[in-house]
Structure formats: C-alpha cells, structure tokens
Write a structure and sequence with these properties.
alpha/beta; Rossmann fold; seven-stranded parallel sheet
Length: 357
C-alpha cells in the first residue's frame, strides 16, 4: 500500500447496525475507505475474491461460520491485519492466537452509542492494524483456547414433555429481547393500562443494570415494573424483569403463577436466557401464555418459542422494519414457532386483544 493510498477496510459482522454505524464512523477519516461490509464470512469471501482489503474487521459470533474459523482461513490464504470484535475474554485469547492484531470489546447493549463514543479509538485501531508487520505476529492454524460450547435450555430445565397444560383464567405475557430491546420494551409497556395482563420479561443486560432499567420503566409506565426476585407472584398490573446474570423461569402452583430466579450455565451464551424463560412458559403455562420475541442479535428464544407454540401458546415476533436487529425474531420465524409478525407499534393492541381485556 502506497503512502497516498487509503486503507481499504472490509467489515464482516451479522449486525446490520454495526456494519452501517462502523462504516459511517470510519468513512469520516480521509485515510480510510470502507470497500465492503458483509453479513457473514461466505459473503465476505465473494467480496475478497474481487478485492482484497488491507484491514478486516471481524465479528466472532456469526451464522454459517464463526469468526475464529474464518480468521484462521484468512491467515492461511493471505495473512491480513484483522481486528476482531467479541464480548468473550476466552475468544479474545483465541483470536490473538489465530493471528488477530487487535481485539475490541463488543457490548451487548447500546451498540451504536458505544461505537460513536469510541470513534477515535476505532479509527486509530484501523490505522495501527494497517501498519502491523504480520511477519512478527505469531499465529497458529488452530486456536489454543477452547470456547465453551453453546448450551441449550436443556442445561437448566428439562425439555417440554409434550403434555398440554390445563386452561386457566390466569393469563401471562412472556417476552424476550436483546439489542435494541430496552427501547422496544419501554414502548410496549408504556402503552399498557394500569391493570394490564402480567408480563414476565428477559432482556439481555448485565448484572446491576436491570435494576435501573426496571426503575426507569416503573416511572414511565402506568403498570408496576420491578426487577424480579425469586418467588415473586405473577399478577395483573405487574411486569417482572429478569435480573442481570440470573435465569428467570415461570412456574405454576394451582391456578397461580410465580417466578423462579436462579443461576446456572449460560444458555445460548446468555444469562438470563430467553430460551429458558420460554421453555418454562411452555411447561407451566402452555395455551395460557402469549410469547413475544422482539429485536435482538443471535438466536436466543427461537427454540423456546417453538416449544411454546407447540404447547398451544399464541406467539408473535417483531417485524424486520421496526427491529434494530432482526436476528432473534428472524430465527424464531425461520424455525416455525411464530404465529404472527407485527411492527412494534401494533404489539400493545395485539396483546390486549389476545389477553381478553
């Protein structure tokens, strides 16, 4: 690369929000040119065959092929400076072993704000990577650190056994969300009346953040919103938010529902996990539940929603147009567990109609 040439960057990440935002940020620097952005390694390879970048920005968790595998393939084919995004410490060690010149932390929440707040750091990282002498980077064809396997809800809760749950007058809304979900959940709950049907909610969020999130919602919503505690009763007019770093399960005693809050392994690489909540709803509530999956990255909740659907629950997913990230709803739809797909602003009306208010 000559002194007057721009640094050609290709972004590989399944988050459309990250690709767009990062391209905008890097595009503000006259020395950098984003020549491509791909949703997965397969698409990226097609671009690379036409024009090889000077720097590759690569995510770890992607469909079809994970980032570490793709990084190893890049280094075997044509060693290139790679910056990897991940939220996992073990993956960072893997990435360096496989040849990445830089690893950056990727937050699960407020991704866009994080990227803009980190604008200078991101631009500097690209420029530094472009100057890297890969002959001095020791990398191995196979990573030396193993990432823990991606566990299903089986690791926390036995699968639904296919038995249908008796109908009851007590109904409950179970809802899951991730990236973009804080705003989406607020929009839904703020539209609910004071005597709304009860909600049990998992939002991917770090420990201690969920208390502030619940308190914020409680201030702006007519219904009561609180961070769940083990044994809390599920009742009309109350929304329970799963605590960060703890799974939440819906349980039933007679005609009443209550929540269980406990630890356990990461499920779909999350704790709390939407899959755990949804599976518990399939087992405990069945046709008495309404399952909703909102915006979010990845596939957490897709398997659980299919179980809810099979157990007789009504299920709904947020549509692509209104999602910040369409990953979780898209996967739930693909697996066949979704009865209807709606824009976010139609969710409150659907909930009240279905729950018989």
């Amino acid at each position: 690369m000559g002194k007057t040439e721009k640094i050609k960057v290709h972004i590989v990440d399944d988050s459309a929000l990250l690709r767009q935002t990062l391209a905008e940020i890097l595009g503000t620097d006259p020395e950098i040119q984003v020549i491509g952005a791909s949703a997965n390694p397969v698409f990226a390879e097609n671009h690379f065959n036409r024009e090889w970048p000077d720097v590759i920005i690569l995510d770890y968790e992607m469909p079809q092929k994970d980032g570490i595998t793709f990084l190893a393939e890049i280094m075997a084919r044509k060693p290139t400076p790679v910056i990897m995004f991940t939220a996992h410490g073990k993956v960072a060690m893997q990435a360096f072993s496989a040849g990445a010149v830089e690893v950056l932390s990727k937050p699960g929440l407020e991704l866009k704000k994080f990227l803009y707040d980190s604008e200078t750091m991101l631009i500097d990282a690209v420029k530094s990577a472009a100057q890297a002498d890969l002959k001095k980077v020791r990398f191995r064809s196979a990573p030396v650190v193993k990432v823990a396997p991606k566990l299903s809800a089986d690791s926390v809760l036995k699968p639904w056994d296919g038995k249908q749950v008796d109908a009851t007058n007590e109904r409950v809304v179970v809802l899951g969300a991730s990236t973009g979900g804080t705003q989406a959940i607020e929009e839904v709950l703020a539209a609910m009346p004071k005597d709304s049907p009860p909600f049990v909610i998992v939002q991917h969020m770090p420990e201690k953040f969920t208390t502030a999130f619940a308190d914020r919602l409680n201030e702006v919503c007519a219904m009561e919103v609180k961070e769940a505690s083990h044994g809390d009763k599920v009742r009309r007019g109350l929304a329970l938010i799963a605590p960060g770093n703890l799974h939440m399960l819906l349980n039933r005693r007679g005609d009443e529902y209550f929540v269980g809050v406990n630890s356990g392994p990461l499920v779909s690489r999350h704790r709390p996990s939407v899959d755990v909540l949804f599976r518990s709803a399939a087992k405990s509530a069945g046709k008495n539940a309404l399952g909703i999956i909102l915006t979010g990255m990845g596939d957490d909740g897709a398997a659980g929603m299919l179980e809810m659907h099979s157990a007789g629950a009504r299920t709904a997913a947020q549509d692509e147009r209104s999602c910040v990230v369409f990953g979780m709803p898209k996967e739930a739809i693909r697996r066949g567990g979704v009865d209807e797909v709606l824009p976010l602003d139609q969710m409150p009306g659907m909930i009240l109609k279905h729950m018989g208010r």
